Structures are given as structure tokens and as C-alpha cells.
Fold this protein.
Amino acid sequence: MTPHRFGQWPLLCLCIATTALLLIVMCTYAGRQPISGLVSSSARRDVTETLLPQTNVSDFNDSDASQKVAVHTTLSARRAKPEMSFVDVIVIVTSPAGWLDRRQRIRKQFPRNLRLVPNSADQHALLKFALGTHGISDQELLALHEEANQFSDILLFECLDEDGHLKHPPNWHLDEVPSSTTRKVMLSIQWAVQRYTFDYFFRLGDDSYFRIDLFLEMISLKQIPTAKAVIGHIMTDTVFNMQQIYPQGMGYGLTYDVCLFVSSNVGSLLDTAPEDCVVARWLFAIGARFVDSPRWRDIELGEGCKSDMVLAHKLPAELWENITKSGLVQC
């Protein structure tokens, strides 16, 4: 007897249902896999509530074999990219449009210190000034374009040029208001990563005295780590209603791998004020080391002047005059 033409439909429906169930299970499992390097929306504003330990630069020891291998591998990987130029340090100065005198002071001092480096003809360091195009007049913007054409060291970003709305600490809790300084740092890191490989990205305040030659010496002598670290004047304070460790905004260095993380997550990371504390929160997400150095000095806080300072903040006018004459601070 010929079977009924609908007799095989139940078996066919069972096969289709089983296949669909397997596909659902596979998609659900795949969706649970973490995406390396990304900060989730729930974590972007409170990356961690843990106060991370800091390291003194004198405690850093490059004698550990495993650490040497890790550093060597990282450096080799960076230098092996033929399509990108290698620079030891990229220095970015965050500066508002109206502070031309401070930019001019750095332009004079920086190359004089760089010439103190052995083989100074090599491209050991690159200096750029980060400015914003929002919140300034048409005349100021025109002046910035003329300055950029003259010196070829200006980076103009689509962000506020100054944090006038965030200068008072009570306003720092306004998480939805971006900080111009934080945005400049974030976008400068992205700019650097897209064009260069490097050991350190150095964020410099335009009111700070920076010895690029001494910083390069610290790198060459392996006195500071070159992976997953920030070096500077490490502070601890109550920010966002919690105890937090952070690199003081007068100037700090970020290793290349930290910059890769930031560059890949510009759209997800916190970008409010205060900039130095927000940058610290970026670093919490990847467990970076906070390396404190006594060669970073804040003169305004009563820390004395020393001739071997790598960075000094708020130098008095007479010391700047000495620097202008000799190229070096005379303590």
C-alpha cells in the first residue's frame, strides 16, 4: 500500500526543530565570550573601586628574567612594524589657544635638552601641542592655523579648548560633561598610535619644566618599565567620593601597550574631569602599574628644586629665566 503523502512530515519537523535549538545554543554561548580590551557600558564609569598599590621607581628591578623577556618581546614587536615610524617618546602638551607664550617657552627649551642626548640626530622624541577647536573665536582659530603652518607641531581636535565650566572641584561629579583636557589626551593617544610605535607617550602640562634627555636616559638604563605602566608623581586623594591613586596632571608617561588599549576604546572610556584621575581609571581597567618617581617635583607643594629633576611643576619666574638663558634649571 502506498504510504500517505503527509506521513513523513512529523519526522521532518522534528529535524528542523532540533537544528534550530542547536543554533540558538551556539549563538548564546558565543555571545557570552568576552571581547578582549573593551570596557562594558556598565563598567565605563566605575572601572574599579579598589585602590591599586603604587611602585616607587627605586623599587623597579629589570633583573628578573621573565620581565626582561616580556619587555624585549614588546619592544621587538613595536620596532618590527615597517609601515610605521618608531619614536622613543611622543610628548603631547595640552595647551589652550591663548597660551602662546607657554608654547613658545617649551619650543625653545625642548630641543636644547634633546641635543644633550647621545646620537641626538636620531628621532628620539616628537613634540606636539594639543588644542581644541570648540569654544574659541574665529580669530583665535585663524591664529592657531597660522601657528600650525609656522611650527608644524599643532594638533587641532574637535573638542572644547578649555575646561572653564569644570574649574571648580564641586563640578567634577558631572559625569556627562566631557573635559577638554581629558579629550585632548585621549585623542592625542589615538593620533599617536595610528602613526607611530613608541616606548612612551608623555602627557605634559604647559606650565611644567620637562627634561626629555633625562627621561630618555631612564628608559635606556631600564630604570622604568616599558610595559603596562604609568610613571609620574603618583598621588592619593578622595575623588568621586572614593580614595583613588592617580598620576598628577603636571606630567606623566604611559607605555605603548596602555596607549593601544586607550586608542581602541576611545568611544567607551570615561572622558570627564579631573583628567589625571580619569586617566587613572583607564589604567585600572588593565591593571597597569603606577610608578612614582622622586625626580618629579611639584614646587608649588613645597617640594624643593633639584638639578636632576626630570619634571618640575610651577617653577618660579626666576628659575624660568635661568632656564631660558642656559637651557637647564639652576637650583
In short: The chain has nine helices and eleven strands.
